[in-house]
Amino acid sequence: MNEIAFRDESEAVTLSGIENFFMQGKAPQLNRARAGRRKGKNLPHQADANLCEEYEDDDAENEDTSEQFSHCDLGLLRDFFNSDELIKKNQKQIDSIRVDFPWWTYCLAGGFNVLLYGVGSKRDLVSAFRDEQLSKFRTLVIDGFREDVTSRAILVNIVECMLLKNCEQKRRSLVDWAKHIACTIEEKKLQLIILLDNIDSPNLRDPVDQAVLAALAANPAVLMLATVDHINATLLWTNVLLESFNWVYCRADTYIFPADELLAGQSSLLGLNPKSSHSAHSLSSLDVLWQSLATNSRSIFRLFYALFFTNNEPVAFWDLFNAAKDDFLVSSDTALRQQLVEFSDHRILRWKRGEDGNEQLVGSLDRPLVEKFLAEKGLNLELI
C-alpha cells in the first residue's frame, strides 16, 4: 500500500518564519507580486495565510518609510547628529566597548581574525583600537564603503605599503596574487594587520573579492580585523571561506550614525539610488561590464566620456557618430545606436532631446570614477 506523507503543520510554521526572515531584504514589488499570486489560491495552512498578511503589512510599511525619507529635513538631521549631547553619548558608548580591546588584541595574537558586528558605525571604534593597541605594529586601514575600494586596489596598496619587490600580478588571478603577496610577507618575516571597515560593502560582495580577502587572512603573517553592518553579511561566506577567515565574532553596538558611510554609498535617506545617483556604478561593476564589451565598444565608451568631460555638456549623437566613424569604430549610425542602447541599459549614459530637437547623450558617471577606471586599463580621457 502506498503511503501518503502529510506535511507537519509545525514544520510549515517554521519554514514560513524562515522564509519571511530571508524575504526582509527583497524589493516591495516582489512582496506584492507574491501576495497577489497567493490571494487567488486556496491556502492549505493557516501559516501561509499569516505569511501573506505579513507581506501586505511589509508593503504598507515600506511605502510609509519611503514617504518619510522623501520629506526628511537633512538640515535638522545634521544638527541633531552634531549636537554635544549626542556626541557625548556616543563617546560614552565607545568607552564601554574599549574594555574589550585587550581581548581583541589577544585574539589577533593567537592567530585569529576579529569580526565586529552590531548596530551603528564602527569606524571611530576601529580607529581608537588601532591607536591604543596597534601603534607599534604595521597596519593598513581600509574604508570598504568607498566606491574606489576593490580587491585589486587593496592588493596594490599592500604591495606599496609593505615595499614588496617582485610581487606584480603578471598573469596571476587575483586570488593567486593575494596568496603570493601573503607568502612573500611571511617569507620576509613581516607582519601586517588589516583593519577593514565594511567588509560587506557592495564593492566587496563579489565571491572573487571575498576569496581574495580570505586568501590574505588565511596566512598567519596577515591578520585582519573587519566590521560588518548588513544583517545577512554571513551569507557572503562559504564554509571554505569561513575556515580561511577563522573569525572570532565580537559584538560592538556603538549606535553611532554612519554619516561617512551614507555619503560614500547609496542611501534612500539622502536620495541616492541607482536611478538618480551618479554613484550607481563602482570600479568593480564597471569592470564586469568592460569584460563583456568588444574592443570597439570599449573605445566608444572612452570616446564618449572624453567628449562629454571636455565641456561637461551633453554630446550630440551625430557629433559622437562622426568622431567614432573617423576612428573606424562604427560604419553606420544604426550600429552606434545599438551600442548606446546597451550603455543606457547599464546606466552608463542617458538620452535626452536638445532645444533644437536633436538627440543628445548625457554621462551618468562621475569624472573621478571614469578616470580611475580607465587608468586601471592603461587609458585616459585625452582626445587624440
TrEMBL record:
Q: Which domain of life is it from?
A: Eukaryota
Q: Which parts of the sequence belong to the Origin recognition complex subunit 2 RecA-like domain?
A: 98-251
GO CC, sorted alphabetically, is: nuclear origin of replication recognition complex
Q: Where in the cell is it found?
A: Nucleus
Main localization of the protein described in the UniProt heading? nucleus
Ranges for domain Origin recognition complex subunit 2 winged-helix: 315-361
Q: Which GO terms describe its molecular function?
A: DNA replication origin binding
Cite a single GO BP annotation: DNA replication
The UniProt keyword set, sorted, is: DNA replication, Nucleus
Q: How does it assemble?
A: Component of the origin recognition complex (ORC).
Record's function text: Component of the origin recognition complex (ORC) that binds origins of replication. DNA-binding is ATP-dependent. ORC is required to assemble the pre-replication complex necessary to initiate DNA replication.
Q: Which family does it belong to?
A: Belongs to the ORC2 family.
What protein name is recorded for this chain? Origin recognition complex subunit 2
* The organism of origin for this protein: Ancylostoma ceylanicum
> What is the primary gene name for this protein?
Acey_s0005.g2763
